[in-house]
């Protein structure tokens, strides 16, 4: 029955108030009824009866019937109330709104409750407005607001004559859980007679939403040996239904555990909070004895507080049992052996260990150390990250003749400290015997390099140095022979037996093969072992300077204007390939030819440079000025050289110099022409010809020496 009228009386707990008709078409098995007023309930015979003495009641009661096959609600209108109309209406609805507004001539606007997801037919009457206008029939009802003439439009309508409020289609509480509209009555001209008043339509929730987990899979981890009741993770689902009802009251359960040993109930989930905790003893929660380190739980969240009619949602929780360092690493053998050739380096043996902890964590990763037997630090041990083995390496070449056998003591530990009740035992140390194998080693030069000092230009065959190469294989009594391996200038030879080095060519400090006064050669020594072994040594000869290079003058060309007031021609300097004291200070002076000091003058500027000056002006031409430069060696070396002086015409900051040969060269041509003419004139007189030839030779000699400049 959608609407039931009942006259109010004083009800007592033994009275039957009203029979209720409900049919779910399946025999009404497991149907549950809820009454909006807690003072009433529906008994097994479908009668609405009071639970205690009731002295007053609300004007409206609602009965909600819910079963596996049906979900419906009925409204009970209670009339004949003694004075307190609507006293507990807000408690019935749980909305907290004020009583319907009334004006002087007010409408009676009871709130309306509508269940969501109602089925056709539509429209369906859900409430009725009562007009207090005495002139019934002279007014019409009007309904406005969201759901009527505003979006969502047309959801609710009102019969303008009777005031019946209808819903035109099914409602969804999760979209809109209540509507607030205005109702009024007007005359036919549109003038308001009653109202406006507020009509509140509340949408009652149905269990039409399943619980939903935010993720399909959740992951968590717990340390092995954790106490029973240790929280691992929390599962959380969401239900879009009304959180104030059982429709959104969730309960969590574990429906499957994989694998299911050593116990099928290793974990427990708090039904209301969703906390997953350990339910197994710490002794059994041992990562090294469990069949797997990962367990998968299927979690179900059910609404309706977990009742059979509740809707469910499912998610998976994957729990990893993490490792703690409760097992010390142990060597697989107490003794390891290795063999290595002397002089070599690298890995000589791999040490294997067993550790039951996780090798990918600090509880299982091994750290090795040499605790005895390596005073020279010739060995090193590192962890192989691929297999956790200890790689023992030789980092300093071993010498068979010094020590042929080494005994090392190796210790293994974990990166993480062990738990308090576990310690390292004897199996965490091992001994390694390293045997050094002999090889034929090459001779060794000492010292290397060998440095000696010699004067350059010493006679060929002079003694330079004596090489010393010894064979490390002292037990084999082998002989050594010497040879030149690299001698860039080809200056040296070596006695193959004694190792004495002598010069085979003069030593020249100024050679391009000498750098910073040092000449470097490399020698090789070979023993008579089988097979023969070789060694190399370096000889560095520091060459002392000898005054074997004459100095020279720079620059070789100078220019001067013919009308210059400044008679300074140029400053020339001395250069010498030799070193001090066989070089500067230099003495620069005019050549010894007669007459030079009438035109030229040399003045010393410093220890390396001198000033060339003119004593009078010269015409535009090229002149060759002979100079003599002498170094400071003992004995000193001198060099006769020439400087070409170009006397030029200078105009507008430009110098116009002669491109012809110097005067000396022009005079040579003139003299040669003159002498040839004389020879032709006196060719019949052989005596005169001989005299002319002698004169030509004499003049040319004077010219070459710079005595003739004009």
TrEMBL record:
Quote the SUPFAM superfamilies the UniProt record gives: Cadherin-like
User: PROSITE patterns in the record, alphabetically?
Assistant: CADHERIN_1, CADHERIN_2
Major subcellular site: membrane
Q: Which domain of life is it from?
A: Eukaryota
A single Gene Ontology biological process assigned to it is: convergent extension involved in gastrulation
CDD domains on file: Cadherin_repeat
Q: The Cadherin domain covers which part of the protein?
A: 114-213, 214-331, 348-445, 446-553, 552-668
| Location relative to the cell | Cell membrane; Cytoplasm
Which InterPro entries does the record cross-reference, listed alphabetically?
Answer: Cadherin, Cadherin-like_dom, Cadherin-like_sf, Cadherin_CS, Cadherin_pro_dom
SMART domains from the UniProt entry? CA
Write out the entry's keywords from A to Z. Answer: Calcium, Cell adhesion, Cell membrane, Cleavage on pair of basic residues, Cytoplasm, Glycoprotein, GPI-anchor, Lipoprotein, Membrane, Metal-binding, Repeat, Signal
What name goes with this protein? Cadherin-13
Source organism of this protein record = Sparus aurata
């Amino acid at each position: 029955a959608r609407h039931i009228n009942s006259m109010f009386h004083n009800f007592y707990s033994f009275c039957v108030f009203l029979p209720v008709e409900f049919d779910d078409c399946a025999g009404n098995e497991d149907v549950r009824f809820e009454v909006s007023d807690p003072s009433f309930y529906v008994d097994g015979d479908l009668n609405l009866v009071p639970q205690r003495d009731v002295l007053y009641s609300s004007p409206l009661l609602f009965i909600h019937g819910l079963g596996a096959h049906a979900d419906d609600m009925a409204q009970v209108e209670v009339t004949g109330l003694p004075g307190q109309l609507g006293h507990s209406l807000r408690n019935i609805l749980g909305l907290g709104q004020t009583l319907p507004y009334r004006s002087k001539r007010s409408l009676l606007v009871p709130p309306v409750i509508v269940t969501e997801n109602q089925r056709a037919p539509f429209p369906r009457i859900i409430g009725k407005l009562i007009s207090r206008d005495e002139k019934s029939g002279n007014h019409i009802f009007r309904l406005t607001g969201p759901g009527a003439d505003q979006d969502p439009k047309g959801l609710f309508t009102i019969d303008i004559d009777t005031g019946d409020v209808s819903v035109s289609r099914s409602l969804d509480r999760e979209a809109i859980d209540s509507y607030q509209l205005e109702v009024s009555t007007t005359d036919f001209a549109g003038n308001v007679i009653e109202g406006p008043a507020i009509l509140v339509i509340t949408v009652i929730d149905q269990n039409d939403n399943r619980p939903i987990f935010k993720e399909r899979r959740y992951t968590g981890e717990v340390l092995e040996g954790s106490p029973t009741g240790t929280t691992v993770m929390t599962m959380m689902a969401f239900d879009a239904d009304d959180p104030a009802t059982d429709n959104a009251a969730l309960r969590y359960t574990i429906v499957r555990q994989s694998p299911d040993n050593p116990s099928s109930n290793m974990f427990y989930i708090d039904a209301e909070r969703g906390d997953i905790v350990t339910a197994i003893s710490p002794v059994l929660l041992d990562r090294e004895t469990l069949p797997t380190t990962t367990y998968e739980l299927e979690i179900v969240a059910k609404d309706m507080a977990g009742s059979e009619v509740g809707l469910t949602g499912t998610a998976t929780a994957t729990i990893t049992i993490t490792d703690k360092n409760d097992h010390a690493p142990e060597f697989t053998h107490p003794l390891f052996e290795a063999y290595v050739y002397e002089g070599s380096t690298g890995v000589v043996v791999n040490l294997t260990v067993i550790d039951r902890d996780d090798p990918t964590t600090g509880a299982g990763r091994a750290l090795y150390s040499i605790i005895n037997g390596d005073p020279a630090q010739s060995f090193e041990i590192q962890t192989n990250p691929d297999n956790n083995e200890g790689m023992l390496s030789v980092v300093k070449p071993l010498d068979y003749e010094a020590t042929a056998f080494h005994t090392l003591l190796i210790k293994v530990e974990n990166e993480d400290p062990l738990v308090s009740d576990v310690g390292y035992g004897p199996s965490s140390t091992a001994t390694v015997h390293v045997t050094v194998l002999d090889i034929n080693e090459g001779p060794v030069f000492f010292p290397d390099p060998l440095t000696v000092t010699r004067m350059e230009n010493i006679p060929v065959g002079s003694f330079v140095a004596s090489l010393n190469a010894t064979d490390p294989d002292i037990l084999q009594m082998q002989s050594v022979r010497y040879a030149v391996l690299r001698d860039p200038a080809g200056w040296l030879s070596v006695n193959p037996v004694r190792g004495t080095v002598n010069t085979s060519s003069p030593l020249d400090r100024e050679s391009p093969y000498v750098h910073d006064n040092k000449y470097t050669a490399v020698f090789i020594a070979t023993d008579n072992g089988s097979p023969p072994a070789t060694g190399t040594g370096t000889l560095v000869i520091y060459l002392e300077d000898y005054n074997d290079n004459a100095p020279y003058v720079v620059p070789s060309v100078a220019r001067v204007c013919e009308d210059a007031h400044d008679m300074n021609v140029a400053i020339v300097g001395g250069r010498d390939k030799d070193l001090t004291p066989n070089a500067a200070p230099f003495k620069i002076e005019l050549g010894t030819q007669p007459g030079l000091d009438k035109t030229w003058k040399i003045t010393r500027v410093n220890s390396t440079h001198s000033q060339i000056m003119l004593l009078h002006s010269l015409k535009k031409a090229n002149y060759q000025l002979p100079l003599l430069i002498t170094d400071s060696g003992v004995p000193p070396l001198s060099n006769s050289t020439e400087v070409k002086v170009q006397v030029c015409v200078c105009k507008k900051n430009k110098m116009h110099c002669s491109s012809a040969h110097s005067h000396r060269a022009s005079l040579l041509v003139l003299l040669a022409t003159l002498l040839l003419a004389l020879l032709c004139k006196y060719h019949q007189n052989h005596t005169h010809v001989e005299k002319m030839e002698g004169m030509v030779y004499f003049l040319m000699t004077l010219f070459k020496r710079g005595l003739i400049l004009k």
